Amino acid sequence: MEGDLRSFRVALVASELVNPEAGGVDALAVIEQEGWGAMQLPAADYPDEVAAPLLDQVAEQTEEFARHGYTLALVGSRAGLEQALERYGLAVPPAIEPDAADQLRDFLAEVAAG
Questions:
Q1: What is the CATH classification number for the domain harbouring 102?
Q2: Cα–Cα distance measured from residue 97 to residue 92, given in angstroms and rounded to the nearest whole number
């Protein structure tokens, strides 16, 4: 495996951490700085009938990454994600609800180290 700028690491990221409120953890900035790719999860306020097909797409893409040996992580949470991943034979990857950027950095380093 060569040439992937994400170093074969992808984080599933809660929408609220991609566009944080003032003073919140900017997960996307940390993920980029640490050399990870990111997939944004549907916003928590999306109705289930809107979120379900989006979560299914995330799960399908996550299965593809997993099959190709990518390291996966979950940053934040999203109702329905666990069930969508299970339909593709996947468990929820290591997860964090970060309170600070340094906490997220440490978590990503631990996950990357295996």
A1: 3.40.50
A2: 14
40-61: pLDDT as tens digits? 999 999 999 999 999 999 999 9
Parent domain of 41: 9-113
Of the candidates 52, 68, 65, which has an alpha carbon nearest to the alpha carbon of residue 93? 65
User: Tokens 């978590």 belong to which residue?
Assistant: 107
Paired with 74 in beta bridges are: 12, 95
Which of these, 75, 66, 8, 64, lies nearest to 35 by C-alpha position?
Answer: 8
Total count of domains within the chain: 1
Looking up tokens 């990111």, which residue turns up? 38
Amino acid at 104: L
Burial of 54 (0-12, 13-18, 19+ CB in 10 A): middle
Amino acid at position 73, single letter: A
